[in-house]
Design brief:
about 450 residues, Gyrase A, domain 2, Four Helix Bundle (Hemerythrin (Met), subunit A), Rossmann fold, 3 domains, 7-stranded mixed sheet, 6-stranded mixed sheet, 13 strands, flat
């Protein structure tokens, strides 16, 4: 059994409820030393999963908080160990006092991600499921949360395990023929397994194709808001994030630096960058702002090019729209829809998706939301949880896919079976690292460092 760990599993803010969690050898005995049930029953005598009302007391006998206590016994717990949870009032001070009482009775502070790491090491979760835990915690959109929840139930592992199992059959057949040549075993012929390799390739290719969408789900779409000075870029940023993040005035050139914020639009997480107005200027500070605006455009995956509906289309507008359209997905945001309209778009601009709105009041953002949602659709035929969301997962799938492709080419070229089997085993090793079957301890430690304390 492992040493006893404890941590506050909820955020360090005032809330209605705060949870203190324990796991490891002696967890139930430890909680019995600080928790007294209202009816006097010990948690060691309480069935798993039953909540018991009582109080937590310090070393001096003083009541620290009233709470509910629940225990689980190994191996039927999140970590696979004996665990206990105290559902207290959400005062950070009270939770700290309860945690101190547990430390005084043999527990130590849990490190970030240590509960989930123990669940992984004890076989309660594989590595993709464990990584889905932090993705679910960090999810900013419903789509990201649904995908993380699907991964948490093993959606990715089920697909890759099917490939791994078929490759294992090939390897087992080969080694059986080599190791027991006198046994009555069907001859090993690589050609018979060509279909197996092709199925594996299709599965892994389809999984890898989801990574770009998965990265956007988790990290968000880099989005640049660009346009001439005073067309309403900062007002648009404020309307999208729901508060006054950027300074808005009638003076052109107010925004000198890039202002960044995150929002969810059309179910898509956007990492917004409000940029300085694009125009020729002799002002040294404004010129630096313009350079940063151009840099933000170059790095963007989505550009919201803001035009003023109440003003004629200018040469500066034309240059901005042309540059944006040649750089990334671009949506024209026709702002100031509440004013008399003077803007006439040229044919090349009319070909781009566009939405008219009033950034000052927020009216009309629903149309913009629908356009953004349409630009970043969910991959067709992909179930919840089957979208890869991080570079480690994608890298292992790519390694396995490359090895299978090489093996297929080797079969076509008439390479000897032992050389082909080396490539298949390389693919299997990569799939093993994906799920955590075989992973160096330092890599495992680095993965769980991303987690919060208490999870």
């Amino acid at each position: 059994m492992s040493e006893l760990i404890a941590a506050v599993a909820t955020g360090p803010v005032r809330a209605a409820v705060g949870i203190v969690r324990l796991s490891g050898e002696g967890a139930i005995d430890c909680v019995d030393r600080v928790f007294r049930a209202r009816r006097g029953r010990k948690m060691a005598d309480t069935p798993p999963g039953r909540s018991v009302y009582g109080g937590v007391y310090g070393a001096d006998g003083a009541l620290l908080d009233t709470c509910l206590c629940t225990v689980s016994r190994a191996p039927r717990s999140y970590t696979g160990e004996d665990t206990a949870e105290l559902s207290c009032h959400g005062s950070p001070a009270a939770l700290a006092a309860v945690l101190t009482a547990l430390f005084e009775n043999g527990a130590r502070q849990a490190r970030p991600g240590e509960f989930t790491k123990r669940a992984f090491l004890n076989g309660k979760l594989d590595l993709t499921e464990a990584e889905a835990v932090i993705d679910l915690i960090d999810a900013d959109t419903q789509a990201a949360a649904k995908n993380a929840a699907g991964q948490l139930t093993g959606a990715v592992t089920r697909k890759t395990d099917a490939v791994y199992s078929e490759l294992l059959d090939v390897a087992a057949h080969f080694h059986a023929v080599v190791d027991w040549p006198d046994e009555d075993i069907e001859d090993f012929r690589l050609e018979a397994y060509r279909g197996t390799l092709e199925r594996g390739e299709r599965t892994l290719r389809g999984l890898l194709d989801t990574f770009q969408r998965g990265r956007l789900l988790r990290d968000g779409v880099r989005t640049a808001i660009v346009g001439r000075p005073n067309v309403g870029k900062s007002s648009l940023l404020n309307a999208l994030v729901g508060f006054d993040r950027a300074i808005v005035t009638d003076v052109p050139g107010t925004t000198r630096d890039t202002v960044e914020e995150t929002c969810v639009l059309g179910g898509v997480k956007l990492r917004l960058a409000d940029t300085a107005g694009l125009r020729r200027t002799d002002d040294a500070v404004e010129k630096l702002g313009v350079e940063r605006s151009l840099d933000a455009m170059e790095r963007a995956e989505l550009i919201l090019a803001v035009l003023d509906l109440s003003a004629p289309f200018t040469q500066e507008d034309a240059r901005i729209v042309e540059r944006a359209a040649s750089t990334a997905r671009t949506v024209l945001v026709l702002n100031k829809a509440d004013l008399p309209q003077k803007l006439v778009l040229p044919p090349e601009a009319r070909a781009l998706p566009r939405a008219a709105l009033c950034a000052r009041t927020g009216e009309g953002t629903r149309e913009l939301s629908a356009l953004v949602e349409g630009l970043f659709p969910r991959p067709e035929g992909v179930a919840e949880g089957e979208i890869l969301t991080n570079a480690r997962q994608a890298g292992e799938v790519q390694t396995a896919l490359d090895a299978l492709r090489e093996a297929g080419e080797a079969i076509r070229d008439g390479v000897t079976p032992d050389a082909v089997l080396t490539l298949l085993e390389e693919a299997m090793e990569a799939l093993g690292r994906l799920s955590g079957r075989a992973l160096a301890s330092d890599v495992t430690d680095r993965i769980f460092e991303r987690f919060c304390v208490g999870k």
